[in-house]
Amino acid sequence: xxxxxxxxxxxxxxxxxxxxxxxxxxxxxxxxxxxxxxxxxxxxxxxxxxxxxxxxxxxxxxxxxxxxxxxxxxxxxxxxxxxxxxxxxxxxxxxxxxxxxxxxxxxxxxxxxxxxxxxxxxxxxxxxxxxxxxxxxxxxxxxxxxxxxxxxxxxxxxxxxxxxxxxxxxxxxxxxxxxxxxxxxxxxxxxxxxxxxxxxxxxxxxxxxxxxxxxxxxxxxxxxxxxxxxxxxxxxxx
Length: 238
What we know:
single chain; Arc Repressor Mutant, subunit A; Tetracycline Repressor, domain 2
């Protein structure tokens, strides 16, 4: 893999953890720390120039502890893709109230987009997309397949909203609706949520993404057919 962009330094005063198995209170964060450390090293040395030992030492762990979490360097990279790549759309849904999707789709979409933007605008999220762009991985067949899969999975939301009457049935395929929402937001990520982005660029990217989200909601969603029917029946009985 080609050399990747400049990495981000460890915050001043932050010490490496001593080698060995982390305390139980820290174990839940170990995988995330390893992924973030790997991204920093990939940025400094490239993927091929980064060893498992270097990743473990960056976090202050032994290699044996690293292998308790990841089987290989590729496994760590795959975890970064799963967390910060297109699959993050699907993972983001796990943190949201599922009942909100049925009760108020517009509010659910706003919450999902905000969650995704928070992940993409994090230091590791911005470093990740720069690595992907500069190594040419955003154009790979594997990434294209991953994007298509995430749109199909996210499309299941739109399929339920169509069935519930929130969206006209003839508006388009559920996966195409998911793409219509997240395609422009993903473009904002590529252009303005990268490792070298200035604060004003990042703010503008998020503002653009939310304006697009509101436009999408107004264009796609309507009052539920069932709700309008119930209103008419209520008026008939008055």
